């Protein structure tokens, strides 16, 4: 009987999750701010009445401390990076009424979901492992705007960004919440999620990042926290071999995580400079295909003839030398030319096209990207070939 109730509960939640997208189209804010929180409250009450069982977690206090510490480090690091990248206006409503609305429609829904997740997972322990997979998929779907995701994934130009910015972080967070519910209960998973989301609701500003930085935080922090928890649990278990304990030692991983974040932030130009791999031969012999150039943003008024700049045209970045600087009614215009090209570039570079000036040139370092470019067979634009 209880197994039947368990299956029915999951099916009812699944039906609501799928219909929520459709209802939201027609009723918008009414669904988001009132109906949705009340529905998840109802699901949590029904789950408690029909499926709840008391369960003891051996390492609950330790896991709670690790999770809270990790979440606070996440927030401190996330907002501290804003000192480098700058801050922007918080899209959430930060007025008193806005905070109340967000607490009701966001935080309380998180609490209800984690409680339901916990009950369904504990119940699924009695049955096939497939039920756990179904619970995982169920909560992933509840965190995604399914119709929007499908439309974005169909479009080749937005598919990669959608996967990295939305889908992968949701998969990562839900997998981590599953783990926390299994190891420490719903209080632990709620604790982590509330600490992460609360500053976004209360603080009127937030760091100005490209999408990849929040995505990295939502993937690497859960992974690192998982390693710390497993390391501490295995360390307390005398039966676990020392080799297994050391495999989860966070000291072996923390340098990798920090290096990964720094490299990606550097690649995005977070620190005021941005690397760019040269993919064509238009600047030979001074700069060859496969070389890496470091570009620094600069005011167009500071550009002089002879400088090597990067500019954007038709969504394509070009690294060419400035041969002359002109002024007209539209402002400053830069006349550019590839060192290996016969003619100057067809159109002058305007201020809004200028990316920056080359500060450093590192030979060969970008050769793997160049080889990948050759394999894919991307078509060179006329401006790069000098045609």
Provide a compact summary of the structure.
The chain has helices spanning 2-27, 29-51, 60-80, 82-85, 96-124, 129-142, 146-154, 156-184, 186-202, 212-236, 242-247, 251-267, 367-376, 382-385, and strands at residues 87-89, 205-207, 274-277, 292-296, 308-313, 316-328, 331-337, 354-362. It is an alpha+beta fold and 387 residues long.
Layout: helices, strands, pairs:
Blueprint: H1 2-27, H2 29-51, H3 60-80, H4 82-85, E1 87-89, H5 96-124, H6 129-142, H7 146-154, H8 156-184, H9 186-202, E2 205-207, H10 212-236, H11 242-247, H12 251-267, E3 274-277, E4 292-296, E5 308-313, E6 316-328, E7 331-337, E8 354-362, H13 367-376, H14 382-385
Antiparallel strand pairs: 1-2, 3-4, 4-8, 5-6, 5-8, 6-7
Structure description:
With 387 residues, the chain is an alpha+beta fold. The chain folds into two domains: 2-267, no CATH class; 274-385, Umud Fragment, subunit A. The chain contains 14 helices and eight strands. The strands form two sheets. Strands 3-4-8-5-6-7 form a six-stranded antiparallel sheet. A hairpin with a 2-residue loop joins strand 5 (308-313) and strand 6. It is elongated, with a radius of gyration of 26 Å. The chain starts with a helix and ends with a helix. 21% of the residues are buried. The mean pLDDT is 85.
């Amino acid at each position: 009987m209880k197994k039947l109730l368990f299956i029915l509960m999951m099916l009812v939640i699944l039906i609501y999750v799928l219909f929520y997208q459709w209802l939201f189209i027609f009723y918008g804010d009414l669904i988001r701010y009132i109906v949705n929180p009340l529905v998840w409250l109802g699901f949590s009450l029904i789950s408690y009445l029909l499926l709840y069982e008391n369960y003891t977690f051996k390492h609950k206090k330790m896991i709670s401390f690790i999770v809270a510490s990790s979440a606070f480090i996440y927030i401190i690091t996330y907002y501290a990076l804003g000192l480098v990248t700058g801050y922007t206006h918080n899209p959430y409503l930060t007025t008193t009424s806005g905070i109340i609305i967000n607490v009701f429609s966001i935080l309380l829904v998180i609490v209800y979901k984690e409680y339901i997740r916990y009950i369904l997972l504990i119940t699924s322990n009695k049955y096939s492992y497939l039920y756990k997979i179904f619970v995982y998929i169920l909560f992933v779907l509840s965190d995604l705007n399914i119709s929007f995701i499908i439309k974005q994934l169909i479009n080749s130009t937005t598919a990669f960004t959608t996967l990295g910015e939305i889908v992968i972080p949701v998969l990562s967070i839900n997998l981590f919440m599953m783990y926390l519910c299994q190891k420490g209960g719903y209080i632990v998973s709620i604790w982590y999620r509330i600490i992460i989301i609360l500053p976004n609701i209360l603080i009127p500003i937030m760091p100005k990042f490209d999408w990849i930085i929040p995505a990295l935080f939502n993937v690497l922090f859960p992974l690192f926290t998982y390693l710390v928890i497993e390391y501490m649990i295995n360390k307390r278990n005398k039966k676990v071999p020392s080799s297994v304990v050391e495999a989860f030692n966070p000291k072996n991983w923390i340098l990798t995580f920090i290096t990964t974040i720094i490299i990606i932030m550097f690649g995005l130009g977070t620190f005021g400079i941005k690397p760019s791999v040269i993919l064509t031969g238009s600047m030979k012999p001074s700069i060859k295909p496969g070389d890496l150039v470091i570009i620094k943003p600069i005011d167009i008024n500071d550009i002089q003839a002879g400088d090597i700049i990067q500019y954007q045209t038709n969504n394509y970045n070009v690294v060419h030398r400035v041969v002359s600087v002109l002024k007209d009614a539209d402002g400053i215009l830069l006349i550019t030319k590839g060192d290996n090209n016969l003619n100057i570039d067809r159109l002058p570079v305007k201020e809004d096209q200028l990316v920056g000036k080359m500060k450093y040139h590192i030979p060969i370092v970008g050769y793997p990207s160049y080889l990948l470019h050759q394999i894919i067979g991307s078509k060179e634009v006329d401006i790069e070939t000098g045609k």
